[in-house]
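In response to a reviewer's request, we include the raw inputs and outputs for one of the modeled complexes. The two entities were modeled together in a single run.
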Amino acid sequence: MEPVGPVAVAEYRERLEKRVLAPLTSTGKGYYLLVAALLAVVGWGAYAYFTQLREGLIVTAMRDRISWGLYITLFVFFIGISHAGTLISAILRVSKAGWRVPVTRMAEFITVVALSVGALMPLIDMGRPDRLQNLILFGRWQSPLIWDILAITTYLTGSILYLYLPLIPDLALARDRLSDVVAPWKRGFYRILSVGWIGTDNQKRYLVIAMTLMMLVIIPVAVSVHTVVSWIFGMTLREPWNNPMFGAFFVAGAIYSGIATIVIVMALLRKVYHLEEYITPQHFINLGYMLAGFALIMIYFNLLEFVTTGYKLAGEGEMHFRELFTGSLAPVFWFYTLGGMVLPALIIVVPWTRSILGVVVASVFVDIGMWMERYFIVVGGLRLPTMPYEPATYFPSWVEWSIMAGAFAGFCLIIAVVVKVLPIISVWEVAEHYEDEKVIARKDAEGVLAGRLVAQHPSSRPFERSREVERP
Amino acid sequence: MCSKTECFTLKEKQRFQLRNPPMPDELKKRGVQQEENTRRWRDSRRRLLKIMGVAGAAALAAPLAPGLLTRVAGAPPEAPQGQDAGSGGEGESTQRLRRWAMVIDLRRCDGCQSTGKPPQCTQGCIEGHLVPEPMQWIQVFEYEVPGGGTQFVPVPCQQCQSPPCVNVCPVGATWSTPEGPVLIDQQRCIGCRSCMAACPYDRRFFTWGKPPAPPETLLADYRPEREYPLPRGVTVKCTFCADMARAGRLPYCAQGCPQHAIYYGDLEEDLATNGEEVVELSSFLSQNQAYRLKAELNTKPRVYYLPGHGEAVGRDAYTKGRMDTRWPWVERVKGAKTWSRSGPSQ
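The model returned the following structure tokens for the whole complex.
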């Protein structure tokens, strides 16, 4: 990398600020059209839910034998997507992967939004939503559902904090730069939320401590969330769910679909808000590699499950196995296996298709495939008869499809609104990362001049350590 | 004389009562109260009972189970004071905790093929409990047996003593009573259906819409042991008719069975009756190769089966099929929307 001077750094920073703050100030016609369309779909979903409240769950296609359906599928899917933020920002932060910096903010957004939408799904699924308070009045620790509520609320709180902490300097930036441009309510919003950030050394030090703490706390919380989600199924006596590996399977699948969702959202925002300078093809390729890695993990997990059950075909497992491989769930299962895991891995592994478009296409397949996996886990697990009766049928009703459309539209809508209020790239982190890279490049250049041996010795690079300390 | 897993120690009983404080007291008061409630609709049932020919059987059953009768009104179940549950003679037996159990003798069950009617246990249960369509709290399944024949197996809630449904309930709306039956409080249930996913016997039902139940259910006072009137969006199941047993009566299914295939009794007193004869429960079970459904799941059901395919009442294993169950009040609840248990398209 070419060494650059402080002037170039300042220029870079200004350009970055302008680019990232632009969506907060100017809004095109297309945006309003999009929001109107999303609102219409959300409204339609709300109407469907109103119908369900009026008539009862009889308007769904769920019945006694397949008593969970699309709602629980969506619950698992959205909670899975929410692992995006944790993985990208916390795990990559822990491993000090520098390239993550421009992506973290979006990932954290997705986490919070997906969690909020996902947590709504079991409420929509409830037969008596009017008795929600019973969960608090009579909640039992022995129930996996209560573990879920605890884990998800903890994760949601943690994620909001983890989204908010790195936002503080950027909110202060918006407060300082945009006070003349934006509406008064927004001005007040930035002023209050930036909690008097002026970038003193003390503030920076505490921010770093808080972020480090959150980053370490949020990873086990995230893992626990999808583990206990899997235990809603794993704690029953149903044969297809009676699988000790379920927790690991769910967590891997969650991260897998989370990465895919980040790629899709990233590609859209990059295109719409011209973030090409900050979100480069390299980001897509890197996320693509992670995607391929998780595809291989998922393939391996599936192999473990289906080879062991399929070889033995013990008990009820046989019927479930046949159902998935050749029976009524076969289209869903094979699309998931081939389209959701093998194809995405191939697209990324083969060099000719390893491009932005390739990674995005792979991600779309991954998300659809993972949705299908959730579907056949929920519906397939319940479809297997527990007594000698004909296997039940389930195909979601218009109410369920409408609520699903509403959920996805709501997911997009919240992201669209958030993009207009909060900076979608972490300005201060990106700028700092840029400066660090340039400075390292300059130092390395000096090191070459001074002699390699000296430069490579850790004690001879006090600058490296001071950089760590100074990082706000 | 009970196995270790089945016997309650004093400590366990107290723990049960601590965990579910209102139940024993409530049941105490309501043992008599329930009689009043049932009287209101019993008149309409009497004719039916005669037709089914079980009125006599029910009368027969009463004197044969003296222990059941002495405790009808006066002596409610209480935890024994300072003595172990298994010990004690006649005087102490009134202080014992009942442990209701059911034995279904499959040798006598022909799926009611010989009567030309739908399974009468199911029918009796539906009429006694005013069960809304399409629930069959006790349902007769047709199992295949080796050799190509079939057997009929009436399956009520198995009243597991290690109930998976109770474990997963997030709000404690379903619980194990000290006497054994697993009950549901439909006024607390939030309708999450975790218990339905957990039940390995397909014995939990959901009111997907407004339940198509006879109008008289609307007048009744709600009790978990009666389960009506039923709201929408909650889980429902067989209650094991423990209130009937405390009043010295057999459950509706046992009353309804024309072949007397269903025995009901008390593991504690070691007696059971089918309305025709009284048996010593423990030896009856062990001498007839009794088994429990899905015993490998270790749910410890209180419903036992004696293997057979109706041979004692003249059915050969190759006569397949039986009549579908009918709800007697289908005509009486015009406009009610019912549903299929298996999915909308069926």
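As requested, we also summarize the result in words. The radius of gyration of chain B is 19 Å. Chain B touches chain A through 49 residues (CB under 8 Å).
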